[in-house]
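Rotation project, supervised by the postdoc (A.L.). Task for the rotation student: set up a whole-complex structure prediction and record inputs and outputs verbatim in this book. Inputs entered:
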Amino acid sequence: MQASDVTANLTHLQRLEAESIQIMREVVAETEKPVMLYSVGKDSAVMLHLARKAFYPAPPPFPLLHVDTTWKFKAMYELRDRMAKESGMELLVYQNPEAREKNINPFDHGPLHTDMWKTEGLKQALDKYGFDAAFGGARRDEEKSRAKERIFSFRSANHRWDPKSQRPELWSLYNARKNKSESIRVFPISNWTELDIWQYIHLENIPIVPLYFAAVRPVVERDGLLIMVDDERFRFNPGEVPVQRSVRFRTLGCYPLSGAVESNAHSITEVIQETLLTTTSERQGRVIDKDAGGASMEKKKQEGYF
Amino acid sequence: MSLVQESSYKVDSLIAQDIDAYLLKHQHKSLLRFITCGSVDDGKSTLIGRLLYDSKMIFEDQLAALEADSKKVGTQGQNIDFALLVDGLAAEREQGITIDVAYRFFATEKRKFIVADTPGHEQYTRNMVTGASTADLAVILIDARKGVLTQTRRHSYLAHLIGIRHIVLAVNKMDLIGYDQGKYDAIVAEYQQFATSVGIEHFTPMPISGYVGDNITASSDNTPWYTGAPLVEFLENVELDVTANQAKPLRLPVQWVNRPNLDFRGFSGQIASGVVRPGDVVRVLPSGKTSTVSRIVTFDGDLQQAVAGQSVTLCFTDEIDCSRGDIITQADAPVQVADQFEATIVWMADDAMTPGRSYWIKLGTRTVSASIQAPKYQINVNTLEHAAAKTLELNAIGVANITTDRPIAFEPYEENHTLGGFIVIDKMTNATVAAGMLHFSLRRSQNVHWQALDVSREVHANLKNQKPAVLWFTGLSGAGKSTIANLVEKKLVRMNRHTFLLDGDNVRHGLNKDLGFTEADRIENIRRVGEVAKLMTDAGLIVITAFISPFRSEREMVRKMMAPGEFFEIFIDTALEEAERRDVKGLYKKARTGELKNFTGIDSPYEPPNDAEIHIDTAKLTPEQAADLIVERLIP
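Outputs recorded:
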């Protein structure tokens, strides 16, 4: 927030910002080897920005980790490299070697793709570097099981989340104590909503992937979702032809799994306008949430997914 | 009748017409956090569902899923079951209960809201206290057909206990009593009587129906006799605690010292109360050192002022000692420093509290070792009566004295939630086992000061030409502790070392003859022996102790009392079968017949050390060999 914004009454965004910064500083003070999971999406962008604020004038005292699936949008890889350079932070990119060897991909392997590249990849990366705390950009308004997760979410030695034995979290007192090989996932923007994220990006001029803005892009329609043809690896079904449509993305992941929405929102304010007037939730464009009925995300989280 | 109807909030026409103007307005919204409390059938989920729905926080796809789920597993027949929207976890949906605190979000024209939604069953105390700890306001729901129930009293008491200043009494399901003003007035009068009795000074009653939507977003035609504001309007306008906090003196718990290079040294933290400006004279506690604020540093440039709630980094004009856990305060209005307190404790773990055991306590940004004494009394949350208690079990609330291992800066919870609220962490499992609220420091901790001694422990040790140490033998009864300890002492004396052997049985004849063998007494036994051993190391002695000392946390407690490097944990490792076969004192036989209770290894656990300095396997070494090995480790 700008210095001139400080008035006697803090706005909701100022309170959220102060809370997120407090959380990040607690993690750095109380854990041995923290890392920030960086997915290049808009939530990651806000989280990274908050980290730069929390430790200024020092750079954030931890690296960025991108658990890569090799199937992200090209534009995401570009922004990732740029932001790492700009923030002065070390960027670690991890790709699950087993998934790479078996050529696991979203076209042939369905849920296994997410499981191998993301869930397993994340666990392998955390084990490889020995991180005992990992920041994630999840928000409680995103999904039902997220609404019940703690800000400091404790994980067993094999990265499992046990929703029934979560530590009570009172006031702004976080318990970061753990035994060797146990770890915590920390969600500093838990209490932000999608609108808060957009508004903050707008106010703070935070760089985000251009895919969030509408542009004419080649897409095919599948199961009610508009999937963008981002590179030559895309597999068309018989009779499928890409069509040019003005679309944008509300969430970004692996490009064959991310549904676009038709839109003419070319600026942040237009995106916010559209978000406010829209009638579907942002996760609606995600194939991965629908894998196992209502409890899909909860199941994935128990297995170690962020 | 379907609940899915037109949202009753007007979608701001600005969104479509002038988004920039809308954003400017939204940017300046404040934030209110509140908690909803109610029992299973009070309509809590329906109310939250309606607040979310009316503020457009439920989207079409979620609604479609909700409609499908309602038909499949809902409890409202063909109607939308809003409870399904808020009961997030698979385990809950199967059992039809809510097992944990969930946080929900919605916004109106004026404010953004975070709602802590807590379930209404057995685990209620733990969950509600957790949800209430961050809330500015509590909405207490009452089913108009049932009136003030035990649960209502419990919820209200807990909200009051945790220091929530704004209480809304929402008399729900008014539609089911025909909007009867007489019945409503009677409920409010009954609640008023109760509220006064527990010290709730003020509350705001309102007649509502979450199901129909009466007095939620707009005044209802069904209750023309109600002249107060509808719920949402009230929530939008109630005064915030954050604002009140700014009027108090400056308190900033230091989280992290920012030292990117030799030229910069800043102290980062979130301001708990007050205002700070460059030029302000501040005092750092507990040290009491003073300095002046030179800069308030942020990513967006230096600030001329920062207020309660903001996360900032302060720089001082002088290089004074200040580190994580310290509190920066207004110089002429510092906080108290003490090491003994009275506190209210809410126990949150399945394992009951063990009086005397050493736990971690985290208060502000400081974590210290502390022990909690047996409760003075426990509070029955249903009747609010005080009852005697030896311990606190899951969901119990009691008042007890706490002793920390070093003085800490604090404020009574009533005055400052950040500097008076704490969590209790189990040293073995690292679980958060309790939450507490400090009342005041005990007078004796204010008046008992350390006497500075002219003859130091170094002088004592040098005179004896040795380095003081504690050789702490632990192991089962009959493992061989006393035998080996005796041999070690003889060998040391032969080497002209000044020693003293503290033996378990002997100490229980004198110093500790008032103690029995319950868990609490065993802990106190070890604590006293630890303190005596510590005094002896101050006198320069090599102390040898032979106690079963079955619990890791107590051995850890004693280790922490000693100077670094002076404590040697020696595990005399003998298998239970072997110790029982020897049964030198005939105690195992008595324990097996039940004549002797709480006997370690039989009906009381022994927790072997994980990282003992010396591990003696008695199956491999004779007592003589073991003693030689120990002496060699001590004096290489």
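Student's summary: Chain A touches chain B through 74 residues (CB under 8 Å).
Supervisor addendum: The beta strands of chain A are 34-37, 64-67, 91-94, 133-135, 152-155, 183-186, 215-222, 225-228, 243-249, 259-262.
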